[in-house]
Amino acid sequence: MTSLFSLKRRGALLSALALALPLGFAGAAHADQLDTITAAKKIRVAIDLAVPPYGLKDEKLNATGSDVETARLLAKSLGLELEIVPTTGANRIPFLQTDKADIVISSMSVTPEREKVVDFSVPYAAILAVVGAPKGMAIAGPADLAGKKVIATRGTTNDQELTKILPAGAQVVRFDDDATSITAIVSGQADIFATAPPLLKTINEKNPAKQMEPKFTMKVNFLAIGLRKNEPRLKARLDEFVKAQLKSGELNTIYKKFHGADLPADVTRNGA
C-alpha cells in the first residue's frame, strides 16, 4: 500500500518536472543565429551612413564607404544577399538587441562596457579618438579644454573618452549622430570636436576656412563586427572571415581606398 508520504513525494517530483519542462523546451527552441541567417539567404548589417569615410552615400545616393565595402565582402563570402540597415552611433547596439539587424559593421570600437552586452569579432580595422580644432587654436591636452565648448556625438567612444578627461569648466554639446555634429561645427556652433580624424577632413571639405586638425589623441580603438551574445557559431564564422581577408589583403585594400593609409600592424597581424 502506497504511503501518504510517498504520494506527496511523487506529487512534488511531478510538479518539479512540470516546471522544468518549459525551460528545457525553451532552451531547445533557441534558434542558432547563423542557421537563421543562412535560411533567410541574407544578412542584415547595421551601418551608420553618416560617418564618412566609414559609411556615406555617394552623389547617386548609393551606400559606400569602408564599412559598407567590408559588409559587401562579408555577404559575398557567405553567399548571402546584403541588407544594409541604416543606424546611428547611439542605435547600433539597440538594433542588435531588438533584432532589427543581425550584426553591426559601423565603426564600432571594442570597449569593456560594450563587451558586457554584445560580442565582437576579431578586429578588422582601427580608429583614433581625437580632439580636433582649427589649426590656429592652441590645444595641447585636456587642460586646454577648460572654459571651452566641445561637440561630441552621443553614444560614441569619442564621447566616452572625452567624458573621462574633461576638465572642470568645459561644456560638452552632444548630438545624436555624426552628421548633425559635423553640421554644428561647420556652421560655427563650436570649434572643438571629439571625433575621428576622417571626420575632421569632412568638415574641412565642407568649410575650408575651418582648417580643422587633430590636437591630441585620446585613445586608439579597435573596430570589430558586433553581434548578439552567445552566438558561438556566428562569431566563429565572422572571426574566420576577418582573419582570411586580413591575410589576403582585401580588408587593407578597402581601408586604404577610403582612408588613404594602410591598416595598423596591430590589426593586420590578426591575419598572420
Automatic annotation (TrEMBL):
InterPro entries: Solute-binding_3/MltF_N. Pfam families: SBP_bac_3 (PF00497). SMART domains: PBPb. Residues 42-262 form the Solute-binding protein family 3/N-terminal domain. The keyword Magnesium does not apply. Residues 1-31 form the signal peptide. Keywords: Signal. This is L-cystine-binding protein FliY. The gene is fliY_1.
